[in-house]
Amino acid sequence: MRLISRSAFAAAYLCVATVAATYNGRIKPKVMIMTFFDAEGEIYLTKSNATGALDFRGMRHRVPYASPEFPDLHCTADGDACLMTTGEAEIQATATTMALLADPQLDLGETYWVLTGVGGGAPDQVTLGAITLARFTVQVGMLYEMDARELPPGFDTGYVPQGTVSPEAAWGSVYNSEVFEVNAALRDAFTAMIDPARVADSAAAAAYRAHYAGVPRFAPGAAAPAVHHCDSATSDTWHTGALLAETHAKRVDLWTNGTGTYCTTAQEDGAVLGALVRGALEDRVDFARVAIVRTVSDFDRPYPGQSVMDNLVNGTAGYPIAIENVWVAGDSIARGIINCWNETFRTGIPAQNYVGDVWGVLGGTPDFGPGRVSGGKPVVLPGAKGQQLGRKTKRGMRRSRFQK
Ligand SMILES: *[C@@H]1O[C@H](CO)[C@@H](O)[C@H](O)[C@H]1NC(C)=O
Ligand SMILES: *[C@@H]1O[C@H](CO)[C@@H](O)[C@H](O)[C@H]1NC(C)=O
Ligand SMILES: *[C@@H]1O[C@H](CO)[C@@H](O)[C@H](O)[C@H]1NC(C)=O
Ligand SMILES: *[C@@H]1O[C@H](CO)[C@@H](O)[C@H](O)[C@H]1NC(C)=O
């Protein structure tokens, strides 16, 4: 567990912006807040009248191909900060992100993408209400799955990497949405913008988390909510229970080469990032300007003596503070970016770590996974300048290098 102390906040990002950018027909957000369902988006609008908060009621823009449930982008009057809600789970998240990328009214070249949503939390890392900032998101459901009642002898889980015959295997065949890695230095900068004293807590959350206090390993789950560095597991399937949590924790470890730590469950993170990689390939997105924030609304497994169903159905005590902390984190980060735009964020914070997908299509060498397809150089698509590494080659590489 990497708990962030208050001292990191004190010195951080206290710039004061005096001049707002001008909105002149095309919206050029400095920051795009991505949320996934109604309550996550609405909290930003409800809090828009809070003292010092960004006011997302300033401008509304209908985005073609957005979710029918959430068709509008909400922005500050100057267009510096915008708020989008994608709709839940992977399909909606990818489709809405692509809709933003395709919208000619948006200039996204310098935009910071801040994903802020609620998720389940692992009690050995975090507690209800915790704010987590990730370096990785891992798509833990993209494997073979066997029902527990039909497990082969010796298997301790029904999840097996595709192209392999063992749950212990690290990698088999690779689709290239298994893992995304984002800019750790940017994550650190954003962390420093969040005042730990503002992390919301509640008596109901405290009463619920106390059930985890008897297990030494779950000490983080029984502690008050704080700000953490740890990683998200993306899956359409809302998993619950200790055994799946342990399986997915192991997958995050294996697929990040031991660098990542599973602490939250999410249904969208990898889906948004997959679209953003494509945006980066088209020069529409700077993939070093992406951050994944999840707050913990419930525990991914029951406390001792509790049934899985009880935790699933009745374990919602953290939900209100998780929603509140989505805004605490997202509003703090967005204001930090805008206020320190000239000093820091216009030019950006260079990534010291690898950023991108499993194959390395944006260039660089992934520090996880079975290798790269492009020899450390970015893939350049037809119509763009530079080295071309087309579809045929990529598929060929997948078969010959990745598939067993
Ligand atoms: C940031 O730089 C721009 C362009 O140089 C300038 O117009 C603006 O006033 C600056 N903003 C602040 C807050 O200093
Ligand atoms: C802010 O908005 C909320 C919800 O719309 C409302 O209840 C509250 O009175 C408003 N506060 C101020 C200071 O305008
Ligand atoms: C949820 O809590 C209620 C009230 O304590 C209880 O009656 C119910 O059985 C619980 N649900 C499950 C699935 O355990
Ligand atoms: C994974 O970690 C091992 C041990 O630290 C290291 O030798 C190996 O190079 C790493 N793999 C990648 C792809 O970085």
TrEMBL record:
<dbReference type="GO" id="GO:0055085">
    <property type="term" value="P:transmembrane transport"/>
</dbReference>
<keyword id="KW-0813">Transport</keyword>
<dbReference type="GO" id="GO:0005783">
    <property type="term" value="C:endoplasmic reticulum"/>
</dbReference>
<comment type="function">
    <text>Nucleoside permease that transports adenosine and guanosine.</text>
</comment>
<feature type="region of interest" description="Disordered">
    <location>
        <begin position="375"/>
        <end position="404"/>
    </location>
</feature>
<dbReference type="Pfam" id="PF06516">
    <property type="entry name" value="NUP"/>
</dbReference>
<dbReference type="GO" id="GO:0009116">
    <property type="term" value="P:nucleoside metabolic process"/>
</dbReference>
<feature type="compositionally biased region" description="Basic residues">
    <location>
        <begin position="391"/>
        <end position="404"/>
    </location>
</feature>
<dbReference type="GO" id="GO:0003824">
    <property type="term" value="F:catalytic activity"/>
</dbReference>
<protein>
    <recommendedName>
        <fullName>Purine nucleoside permease</fullName>
    </recommendedName>
</protein>
<dbReference type="InterPro" id="IPR009486">
    <property type="entry name" value="Pur_nuclsid_perm"/>
</dbReference>
<dbReference type="InterPro" id="IPR035994">
    <property type="entry name" value="Nucleoside_phosphorylase_sf"/>
</dbReference>
<comment type="similarity">
    <text>Belongs to the NUP family.</text>
</comment>
